[in-house]
Amino acid sequence: MSIEEGCSVPNEETRQRSHSVHRTSGFDPRTEIFNSLVELNERQKILTDCNLDVASCVLSQFPHALAESRIALIDAATNCQISYAHLYRSIRSLAYGLYHAVGVRKGDVVFLVAPNSLLYPTISLAILSVGAILTPANPLNTTLEIAKQVADSGAKLAICAPEELHKLIPTKLPTMLTTKTSDGTLLSAEEFIECFDPIDLPLERPTQTDTAAVLYSSGTTGTSKGVILTHANLISVISLLKWSVSASSSQNDVFLCFIPMFHIYGLAFFVLGLFCSGITTVVMQRFDFQAMLDVIKVHRVNNIPAVPPVILALVKHASNMKCDLSSLRRVGSGAAPLSKEVTDGFREKFPWVELRQGYGLTETCGAASFFALDEDAKAHSGSCGSLLPHFSAKIVDIETGSPLPPNKEGELWLRSPTVMKGYLRNEEATTVTLDPEGWLRTGDLGYFDEDGFLYIVDRIKELIKHNGYQVAPAELEALLLSHPQIVDAAVIPLENEEAGQVPMAYVVKASGSELTENQVIRFIADQVAPYKKVRRVGFISTIPKSAAGKILRKQLISQTQQRLNSRL
């Protein structure tokens, strides 16, 4: 990949390194490290070089000269519009209310559970403006799952959509609503925005090393863990988004948001990053395929950050439905692998639309690799792009731990300013995932080609990716084992064309038990969010395990595939 026009002239240290770094792959044989070949110029470094916290950084980038006329957000359902000036005032008003009326202080953890809305970015940025720590949650989570996150994060206050209030009552956590209700029994963020003037807050500002957010991810193994992201982490990722948007979009572009804002993908893009480029975003509360097509036509949407199931649906169904996608110029894909077959099918049906895949993790603020140029994406179908600025990577042999050169498969390790501080109150998991030099072990098997493009081959880690969500087998196995008629259990991924993967359970029944597949499925469904549901159950006499007692999932996956093939 060529260095973008407008990128900075390399300094002396960079020039010396360039003598050994391969000019297309970015691989340095001396250090056995892959380096990004793109550097931000001085103008593009303005965010990373500032000493501001992330909320102040984002607000400083608002297009103030045009703030009253430039639209920041549009509600896809109601067509309600919010200008940048209104958004700025709302954030400041709510922050003032949280500080003075509720007593939220720097370092307090605020739990937020709500679907996408025009209010979501305001609430998130107001929390960060006070210096508090944001911990968002999936509104699909059950009462039990929400209670676990509230307890683990140490939340002092919850802000929730009215329809989610019942899930928070058992936690006894002080709670306010996102919007006003008819009975008016609880305070709401909406009322604070209407009642308080946006006065400067007499606050001790957070430093860039302070925690800004705790997002819950399954990491590389096990059950859900709190990923600690600092203000510096988030500022680094929005500087990368600002660079990528300026390289491929104009300020007049319209983006469509159906990616959940509680997810790092949605948080980085639609709560933080795009506001730094003065972009207009149309917000959908939840994804609906036909509604998405209608919104693209009505609002002349140009850009869609998406996930593979949405792209697959476009390939399969859009040509058979009444829709006008002529305004669409670019579709991004992240959160899960996008196959070469789906990529090629999309390009065949929508040749005027650029399709660019990226790769990242919650632990890297959702960033790592990206296609800056559409011609590179076309030439490297199946790849998820090249390293973003400020990223370094190693491909490490799984058996020996030795770094590998281009075109050799191994575990992907990453290092950058976006890499998390660690897992909340979990030193063991942090030590396993982060090495002393700051390398993040991703748990993904991949390689770089001779041109520096990254390919993710398989997941070493045992997570199941369902529609971009992460499902930890260990969590489901623990629930299965709590059933009185289940002796042992293992959960594996089952490939699914629509969702990517779905959880399948192998169960060892107690002697004499007449437990059925439907009973097992319902038992799990009652305790977890919909995307975590077990979709199939196989009954087995014993779960294959290693001498150390580790479940041999690959053996179960292979057996399942053989059975499926024999039935075809």
Automatic annotation (TrEMBL):
Disordered: annotated span = 1-24
Annotated membrane-spanning segments are 262-283
What residue stretches are annotated with the AMP-binding enzyme C-terminal domain? 475-550
State the UniProt keywords alphabetically. ATP-binding, Ligase, Membrane, Nucleotide-binding, Transmembrane, Transmembrane helix
Top-level taxon of origin:
Eukaryota
Record's Gene3D superfamilies?
Answer: 3.30.300.30, N-terminal domain of ligase-like (3.40.50.12780)
Which family is this protein grouped under? Belongs to the ATP-dependent AMP-binding enzyme family.
Q: What is this protein called?
A: 4-coumarate--CoA ligase
* Species in which this protein is naturally found: Eucalyptus globulus
